[in-house]
Amino acid sequence: MDPRVHEHAEVLVDWSARIEPGDDVVLAVEEDAHELAVAVAEQLGAVGANLLATYESSEVSRAYVKAHDGGFEAGAHELAMLQEADAFLALGGGRNTTAKADVGGETQQAHSRAREAIREARMATDWVKTVHPTRSLAQQAGMAFEEYQDFVYDAVLRNWEALAEEMAEVKEVLDEGREVRLLKDRDDQPTTDLWMSIEGRTAVNSAASVAYDSHNLPSGEVFTAPYDTEGTVFFDVPMTINDRRVRDVHLRFEDGEVVEFAAEQGEEVLEAELDTDAGARRLGELGIGMNRGIDRFTDNILFDEKMGDTVHLALGRAYDANLPDGETGNQSAIHTDMIADVSQDSRIEVDGETIQRDGVFWFEDGFGEA
Amino acid sequence: MDPRVHEHAEVLVDWSARIEPGDDVVLAVEEDAHELAVAVAEQLGAVGANLLATYESSEVSRAYVKAHDGGFEAGAHELAMLQEADAFLALGGGRNTTAKADVGGETQQAHSRAREAIREARMATDWVKTVHPTRSLAQQAGMAFEEYQDFVYDAVLRNWEALAEEMAEVKEVLDEGREVRLLKDRDDQPTTDLWMSIEGRTAVNSAASVAYDSHNLPSGEVFTAPYDTEGTVFFDVPMTINDRRVRDVHLRFEDGEVVEFAAEQGEEVLEAELDTDAGARRLGELGIGMNRGIDRFTDNILFDEKMGDTVHLALGRAYDANLPDGETGNQSAIHTDMIADVSQDSRIEVDGETIQRDGVFWFEDGFGEA
After folding, report:
1. CATH of the domain at A139
2. If DSSP codes are grouped into helix, strand and coil, which group holds residue B3?
């Protein structure tokens, strides 16, 4: 077995999920994640946790939901399992990312709605989502299999402790800041000049560990929940919204709301997103990607939004973790991330101080310390 | 997909497990049983049951138990899942039947002991065990893959209702009978002449359905719990005991107990079995195989013991289902099945009446009805 599979398992169990002896752990294994499941099982055995593996197959799920009359129920057995579980480790890695392409949207939604209590029980555990590199994911990323393996392990096998310390510095600046300004030029023309209020909001240091309220491996972003957005923004990293490609999105905000929009590709998809509900035209998240192991777009949001030298904004729902206790942030049925490359001709300012210039942070270059 | 996979799923869900709308079903999927899992999921969706699939991988289990310090616990999450489950459908079919060959016996036993409550909770559901034909099982059977597929579907896709009616006739004779005599010659020499008391015992019509207290698919045997065994018996179907091959076993019983034994191969394995405990030298089961879809030995007890024209006896523990309420049968840590071919030069008598001669039952030939 590739030694990196074992290292991946160690990071997942020790750093990300903080598994302890006697913990009741659900290991949710997708069709082609077998190798990682074996390595994680070994790690769980070494720690002395109690292992129960579930089989997360898109093909099994497709067959089930298509044959069902649509009156779905949450299984009491699944709910009981999750209520007793201390941790839930989801090992992504299927054989076909479009395995459920022929399941109708209504069926998917009905199934998803019926499983709300199951989702909540899962989120109440120390859950972590990761992926095992499979040929299907390599294909989605447009990469050779070995090339994709290198990509995944570069993203996952970081010095997380060191990255968490760097991200803590960014979190501190955002926590204390009142206003973020994002600037970007293209061919010497300004494409982005956006102001957002962040006062009173708490940033999350997403360091790929439940100890940091971070549930993705890889992670590596600092995010907060902005409001009162004004100005224009351009997203140049391609994205997939509802299984459709969307490219080169321009948005203009007034009084916190999108008042103009355009896209080179998929504009009608973008329009449908914006029309979902009132909150769909407001921002729910500002995230700063800081994982430099992720150096390219692979059409997988687990990786894309953490890419180093990028910033992402999400239209729609805000995360509770960013809000003061009892306060509700932006509400919406959607949370749609859009990503901008800020490695060149770009600047991020907090309260007038530059914290990143062309992808380089102030603490890396000292430029903001004067 | 081979249409027989769908038929297999239908038999499992409808005939064997009797799944009803709203049932909470655990689908336990071995590594290579994916296709059958998809077909069963479709069937469960059509019925309107609630599906939770678990991943039963010998390699995952091996990695876990080998890394563990041996102080195993039953996971509260697994126990809770089973306590809420109505049915447990085990889909066998791995990639390597010897995947756990390097796990020490003590480790296996410690793991198994710690999981006693889990096993009991599983047995309290409407559980059914079946197998999907895999290359690994074909290899164990010494067969080509397609040949093995045909073999499995011949065994599984029976007219179970008709077979259940035939088996009911045999059950009735055994329920009313006091004594069974088993006779067999080889080259005109008697090799088997065995008497067993069965008075007061209840036979089980194992018709591959929970409705018949039968939990294997395929099944197709009628079994009871004999006692006061006297005489000699010869088992000519090869068997695997504790992963070792044992062949051509002779046993002689006096006062219900084995007093002489011999085997052409694996005699030391047989001796160790007999020395396990006091009950290991007494019979726990007499079974009459009636599944004529199973026409050969495949080194898999799920199939072997149901083979048409065979009789099997088990040393060790008796099943409660064969005993009057409150009565305990033979007790032992082992239950070791040994199989005799009775298709030729053989006779089964109950209270002096022949019920089977050279593999043919009285109701097939009318010979016992005069």
Report:
1. 3.40.1830.10
2. helix
> Which chain A residues are Cβ-neighbours of B50 within 8 angstroms?
73-78
Arithmetic mean of pLDDT over chain A: 95
Cα–Cα distance for residue pair B110/B121, rounded to 1 Å: 18
Determine the residue of chain A that is closest to B51 in CA distance.
Answer: A75
| Whether B354 and B211 share a structural domain | yes
CB contact under 8 A, B50 and A76: yes
Per-residue pLDDT reduced to its tens digit, B137-163: 999 999 999 999 999 999 999 999 999
* Residue B124 scores a pLDDT above 60: yes
Distance from CA of B227 to the nearest CA of A (A): 41
The domain tally of chain A equals 2
Provide mean pLDDT across the span A82-94: 97
Q: Report chain B's terminal Cα–Cα distance, integer Å.
A: 50
> How far is the C-alpha of A51 from the C-alpha of A174, rounded, in Å?
39
Please give the average per-residue pLDDT across B242-268, as a whole number: 94
Domain around B330: 160-365
Inspect the interface and report whether the beta carbons of B44 and A64 lie closer than 8 Å: yes
Instruction: Provide the CB-side half-sphere exposure for A366 (13 A, CA).
Output: 0
Q: B54 vs A55: CB contact, 8 Å cut-off? A: yes
Surface of B (77-96) touching A: CB under 8 A: 77-85
How confident is the model over B116-136, as a mean pLDDT?
A: 96
Given B156, B177, B196, which residue is the final one in a domain?
B156
Instruction: Enumerate the residues of chain B whose CB falls inside 8 A of the CB of residue A126.
Output: none
Tokens of B306: 């149901």
Q: Residue B241 — very low, low, confident or very high, per pLDDT cuts 50/70/90?
A: confident
Q: Is the pLDDT of residue B103 over 80?
A: yes
Q: For residues A309 and A343, is the Cβ–Cβ distance under 8 A?
A: yes
The predicted model scores a pTM of 0.91
B62-91 pLDDT, tens per residue? 999 999 999 999 999 999 999 999 999 999
Nearest Cα neighbor of B206 from B223, B194, B190, B182 is B223
Domain boundary at B93, B128, B156, which? Answer: B156
Q: Which residue has the tokens 């080259």?
A: B187
- Enumerate the β-bridge partners of residue A240: A245
Residue B97 sits in the same domain as residue B222: no
What's the pLDDT at A370?
41
